[in-house]
Amino acid sequence: TSINESSNNNSSNTTTTTTTTTINFFTASSKMKSIPNALLRRNVRNTRTCLRSSSSSSAVFETSQERLALKLRLGGDWKEQVASTKDVLSAREALVAAGKLEDSMPQAEAARSLSKLPTAMADAKVELKAWEDEQARYHERAKQQSDRTKSSRKDAAQWRGDGWIKGSPKTPKHPEIIGPTCSLALGPPPSLYPAGVYIHGSVGSGKSTLMDLFCLFSMQNLRVRRQHFHEFSVWLHESIHGLGNKAAANGIRKPRKHVLALLVDDLAESCDALCLDELAITNVADAAIFSELLRLLAQRHIAVVCTTNRPPEDLYKDGLHRDRHVPALITHLQERFLVAPINGKDFRAQMLQKHSEQETSSPSSSSSSSSADGSKVFFEGGTSEEVLEQVARPLEVTGPKAE
Known about the structure:
The protein is α/β, with parallel strands linked by helices. The protein contains 14 helices and 9 strands. The chain has a 7-stranded mixed β-sheet with strand order 2-1-6-7-8-5-9, sandwiched between helices. The chain has a two-stranded antiparallel ribbon with strand order 3-4.
């Protein structure tokens, strides 16, 4: 399921945003039974309500930690797991020890990279505070000099030429401060480093699962927004055009680069970590602005986590004007991000093969078990309402199958 979520640690409510209506529900009979019946039924009911109230092109999903726990099949005690786990690395190790995840060295390395982000964000805040304190010290010194200059100018303006012995007051050599100051000697404000984690690898290797674990086990201390990249790209371009048109309507002509900075400022007010699933640069518009977007996000200390099938050097391969825009993006990803390759077993194909073997070994009971315990893996054809009905019917009528 494509999810877009933003959690605020100052409130228990979850902010919902608009996403597309493409939904693929799947369940696993052996692990879905461990999730409480009421939890699954509530998520199905919420999603059905969103679909009924949505337009033909979009739907509003009630996303929360419960949805991530349901997607990861953590079981009914997921809240205790979240409370007792400090980061995504220890969460993955606990799931491997419990037999819910297979051990994989590339996944472990990627999880280790993800676990570094909260510490890097905390260190960046400390560095920014030190930079701001030093700027304040320079500003106070400049303000004192400005006050002396103002006093000297006042004395010069009031001098009447009385007394040839005293002479005229000297003209102040230092300028007067009329606005905010910034000492160039300190350089620009410190940016977030590492600015994020770039996870790439083959299909079914567990990239999105790691991202979901990061979102779930980081929501306690961070405001995390998880979104499919294509949905984020649509929102990004619509927001840029909206801000640009609004400024033009007020008679203000601002370059698109400045509009992008305003958009990132608004994003920073509600987001600490941005998770983009299935990153794919497929058009020149995304290629042109994405490098600058990542730089601005790092300046605002917003960590970015990306999952994709391509390494950084293969982004927008053979695309239009690739040589103009993508080299800067590649350099930024390789120098400022933690690049974590995951190339290994296709767990998705393994799950489908296991399910197929179970159906082949018991063809007489496959149909009844599929409708009785919700073990159907994929749904083809039909509408989203029909899929939800098939998922909810066994829970609402027969209840979970006894072990």
